[in-house]
Structure formats: structure tokens, C-alpha cells
């Protein structure tokens, strides 16, 4: 028995090491390649551009990580960012920055509550629930905005998001980094974090160990929704308007970032710190292809291959008797 446990522990250690090292290698290789192709890529100004471009993506990927850690998935994250961004644009002039932020976070948490409740209480797979929610939220966002950008007069939100309080680094970057640090602490230093990993490791075992499975699964979706709501407000501040297409690319890129960072879609492995590395890979890849003038269609093809490769390297096959 001891030998079996040691073998399992060794395999798990090798798996964790591989999923940490690969993103770091990818970052080094991508930076070296794009810097060689275009020296302007390796500059302080472009580094800030990468940070600005990836901050909202990092927030959305963190939200996705929370749900993926329990072995579920949330396909509505991009549409939720779009909707909450539009709502923030509609409310910021009347209720101010604080009011618009609360609306965004509140609506996001409410959507997460609905998603989590449907998954746990009706026993509907998270893929199907959130796929349907994606369509609902997209329709609501377009209905509210009538397919047009929502402008606002308030200057505090854009100034806060795009301004800089520390070291000349845009605040939006600091917000995303702080969110990463807080969620990493939650993942590894709180009961909530331990239970999320336990659920991803196996719901039946977690239930037998006394974990309130339904409550913490719903809580994971609520937390993810709240983070997406905040990301929507940040995106509206960054763009200066609420737009019905704002979150269209976030779903694909966030999933790519999560799995590229080493958080397994099967659940129980990875975490926010891994997602940070994954977002860096996707952000550097995207920015590098922009700088080297790779067309957008080719970029989508490349990102698709990246997702397939990342999933094949990070999936925990020991959890599956059959691959369907």
C-alpha cells in the first residue's frame, strides 16, 4: 500500500512539475522569438501594452479557474463581462463609480448563483447550463444596448482604470495582480480553497469527508460571476463605453489561458498562480502576432492549436476510465 501511495505521489509530482515548467518555457521561447523578429517587441512600452491588454483577460481567466478547479466549466464568462460592462455604462452617471461597480459585481454574482443552482439542484452538466446562459446573457446585452455602444459622461471610472498611482504602471494592471494574489491566498490558505480542490479531486470522496458539496459548488459559481462582473466594469472603464461585443474573445482566450497555465479541466489541479502564467503565454502570443502583423484569422487557428496542446498536456487521465 505504501509503495502504491509513493508511486501515485511521484506521478502527481511529475505532473505538477511538467505543468509549471512548460508555460515558463513557452514564455521564454515566445519572448525570444518575437524579439528577434521585431526588436520593438522587447521594450518597456510594449510590456505595458501587454499588461493593459491582458488585465481583463486575467480577471476572466481567474473566474474560470475557480469553476474549473471543482471539475466544472463556465462558458458564460465572456457574455457576462459584456452584460455587466453595459450595465456599468448605463448606471455610472446616475449612481457613480461605486454604484456602477456594485451593480456589475451584484449582477455577476446573481448569474453565478443561477448557474450554480441549476448545476447542483437540477443535476444539469455545467457545460450545458452555461452554454445556455451564454446565449441568454448575449441576448439581454444586445436587447439593452440595441447593438450600439453605450457612452457615459463620468470621467472617474476611465481615469481610475487607465490612470496610474504607482510606478507609472496602469491601475488596471495592479487590480488584476491584486486579484491574482488574493485568489491565490484563498486557494491555498482558506477552507474555501481546500474544499474547491477537494471537490475537483472527487465529489463523492469530498462528500464522505464532510464537505457540503452543493453549497461550495454554488459558491464557486457565485465567486466566478462576481469576478466577471468586476471585470466587466474594468473593461468599460478601459474602453470608455459599454459595447455589445466587448467580451466576444474572452471565453476562448480565458480557457486557453487556464489550461495553458496547468489547471486541469478535470479539476483539482492547478490554481490562480498557474492561470497567471497561462495568461502571460496567451498575452505574449497575441501581442507578438499583432506586432509581427499576423492576420486575425491565423491567430485564431494558432490559439485553437494551443488549447488542444495544452489540454492534452494538463488533463489528469487517471480520473477517466474512458475518454469520450
Automatic annotation (TrEMBL):
<keyword id="KW-1003">Cell membrane</keyword>
<feature type="transmembrane region" description="Helical">
    <location>
        <begin position="95"/>
        <end position="114"/>
    </location>
</feature>
<protein>
    <submittedName>
        <fullName>ABC transporter permease</fullName>
    </submittedName>
</protein>
<dbReference type="Pfam" id="PF02653">
    <property type="entry name" value="BPD_transp_2"/>
</dbReference>
<feature type="transmembrane region" description="Helical">
    <location>
        <begin position="218"/>
        <end position="237"/>
    </location>
</feature>
<feature type="transmembrane region" description="Helical">
    <location>
        <begin position="249"/>
        <end position="269"/>
    </location>
</feature>
<feature type="transmembrane region" description="Helical">
    <location>
        <begin position="126"/>
        <end position="145"/>
    </location>
</feature>
<keyword id="KW-0472">Membrane</keyword>
<keyword id="KW-0997">Cell inner membrane</keyword>
<keyword id="KW-0812">Transmembrane</keyword>
<dbReference type="GO" id="GO:0022857">
    <property type="term" value="F:transmembrane transporter activity"/>
</dbReference>
<feature type="transmembrane region" description="Helical">
    <location>
        <begin position="20"/>
        <end position="44"/>
    </location>
</feature>
<dbReference type="GO" id="GO:0005886">
    <property type="term" value="C:plasma membrane"/>
</dbReference>
<keyword id="KW-0813">Transport</keyword>
<feature type="transmembrane region" description="Helical">
    <location>
        <begin position="165"/>
        <end position="188"/>
    </location>
</feature>
<dbReference type="InterPro" id="IPR001851">
    <property type="entry name" value="ABC_transp_permease"/>
</dbReference>
<keyword id="KW-1133">Transmembrane helix</keyword>
<feature type="transmembrane region" description="Helical">
    <location>
        <begin position="56"/>
        <end position="89"/>
    </location>
</feature>
Amino acid at each position: 500500500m505504501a509503495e502504491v501511495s509513493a508511486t501515485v505521489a511521484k506521478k502527481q509530482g511529475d505532473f505538477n512539475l511538467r505543468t509549471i515548467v512548460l508555460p515558463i518555457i513557452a514564455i521564454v521561447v515566445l519572448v525570444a522569438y518575437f524579439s528577434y523578429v521585431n526588436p520593438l517587441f522587447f521594450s518597456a512600452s510594449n510590456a505595458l501594452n501587454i499588461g493593459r491588454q491582458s488585465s481583463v483577460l486575467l480577471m476572466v481567466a481567474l473566474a474560470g479557474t475557480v469553476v474549473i478547479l471543482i471539475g466544472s466549466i463556465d462558458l458564460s464568462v465572456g457574455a457576462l463581462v459584456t452584460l455587466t460592462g453595459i450595465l456599468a455604462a448605463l448606471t455610472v452617471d446616475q449612481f457613480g463609480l461605486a454604484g456602477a461597480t456594485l451593480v456589475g459585481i451584484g449582477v455577476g454574482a446573481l448569474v453565478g448563483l443561477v448557474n450554480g443552482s441549476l448545476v447542483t439542484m437540477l443535476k444539469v452538466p455545467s457545460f450545458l447550463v452555461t452554454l445556455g446562459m451564454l446565449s441568454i446573457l448575449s441576448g439581454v446585452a444586445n436587447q439593452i444596448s440595441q447593438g450600439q455602444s453605450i457612452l457615459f459622461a463620468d470621467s472617474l471610472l476611465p481615469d481610475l482604470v487607465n490612470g496610474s498611482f504607482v510606478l507609472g504602471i496602469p491601475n488596471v494592471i495592479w487590480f488584476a495582480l491584486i486579484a491574482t494574489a488574493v485568489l491565490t491566498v484563498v486557494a491555498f490558505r482558506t477552507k474555501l480553497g481546500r474544499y474547491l480542490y477537494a471537490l475537483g479531486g472527487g465529489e463523492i470522496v469530498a462528500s464522505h469527508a464532510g464537505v457540503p458539496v452543493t453549497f461550495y459548488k454554488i459558491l464557486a459559481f457565485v465567486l466566478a460571476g462576481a469576478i466577471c462582473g468586476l471585470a466587466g466594469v474594468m473593461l468599460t472603464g478601459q474602453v470608455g463605453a459599454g459595447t455589445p461585443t466587448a467580451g466576444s474573445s474572452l471565453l476562448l482566450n480565458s480557457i486557453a489561458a487556464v489550461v495553458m497555465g496547468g489547471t486541469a479541466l478535470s479539476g483539482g489541479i492547478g490554481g490562480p498562480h498557474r492561470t497567471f502564467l497561462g495568461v502571460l503565454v496567451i498575452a505574449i502570443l497575441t501581442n507578438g502576432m499583432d506586432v509581427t502583423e499576423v492576420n486575425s484569422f491565423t491567430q485564431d487557428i494558432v490559439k485553437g492549436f494551443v488549447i488542444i496542446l495544452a489540454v492534452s498536456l494538463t488533463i489528469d487521465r487517471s480520473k477517466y476510465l474512458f475518454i469520450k
